[in-house]
Amino acid sequence: MKTVPMPFLDLTAQYRSIRHDIDSAIQRVVTSAKFIQGEEGDALEKEVASYCGVRHGIALNSGTDALFLSLKALGIGQGDEVITTPFTFVATAEMIAATGATPVFVDTDDNLLLDVQKISGAVTARTKAVIPVDLFGFIPDMDAMQRIADKYSLAIIEDAAQSIGATYGERKAGAFGTCACISFFPAKNLGAYGDAGMVVTDSDELANTLRLLRNHGSQKKYHHEILGYSSRLDEMQAAILLAKLPHLDGWNERRQAVAVRYSDALRDVPGVLAVPVIPENRTCVFQQYTIRVQRRNELQGFLKSVGIPTAVHYPIPLHLQPSLAFLGYRVGDFPMAEAASQEVLSLPCYPELPAEHQTRIVKAIQEFYS
Ligand SMILES: *Cc1c(COP(=O)(O)O)cnc(C)c1O
Q1: CA-closest residue to ligand 1 atom 14
Q2: For ligand 1, what atom is nearest to the CA of residue 67?
Q3: With contact defined as beta carbons under 8 Å apart, do 196 and 188 qualify?
């Protein structure tokens, strides 16, 4: 077995393939000397909104800010409750708490997504919203989610940080609920060269509030209508993202091809408990390709020893994180999410993943369980 280490993700390969477009985008911004709130950001908002099939895009500092400001724009704060999944990146629940509201967790389903069937049981008179997460690029059952939200008059904030380009029926990630939060963190499917994010929404009112909130409550210089924040996206990141957006669908297709090859090779390996299963009417964009396995930590150690990096998304469900201990949850509260945290393993999955690397990864997993 070869032990030359390979990367988990190789962003330099992507840069090499589009170097000319990126370099000229950066040059354009530097030459214009317009660095904040200019044409690049405006163009990116229009392009991403239209890509997602909604009317407005509000470009922000990060996906985390997109979550925080969406909650603020909806008037959510102290005394309110927001339902979400314990099996996600911390920002989803952390930003609920940052507004003063209380994150209320509901366990996950077989697909590692917020279990729609369990939402009703967690709704109280204080519940204002639900944040479903398109985990690993896979959109939950949004028709069922919308029925429940309508029944209890809840806003839906779609955490689409990992799913730009994924589809559910005819619609794309970002087009569900009241608004959706996109992350352009460098490792995401559409990654900036620094922090960046966006809220996309069909609501004129929400879009206006978000534009105020991201810029000190101001539309006109030195006139401040409401208390806000500093969360504008800079022009450099916007120009880079504009150069990358036309490649997104192609990159997502290559991730899907990588995923199909993994699943075909690993589905029947003893020790592999589950490979991702995507229903007919949905497409997943595989922000991560994550399997569930027996003896996960041992397998991870073995793969590392032969130069194969892997990642665990996520090793500790959010209800058991020290930062959220004040919520009072205990081990055993969300058995599905807790089991998942022991069994999940993400394998290298990116558009430029060399075929030889994938062959090596598959062989090593087969060898470990043989
Ligand atoms: C990446 C991510 C975020 C946060 O986005 P940033 O741009 O890193 O702030 C939020 N939620 C989920 C599910 C994410 O994966």
Answers
A1: 161
A2: 10
A3: no
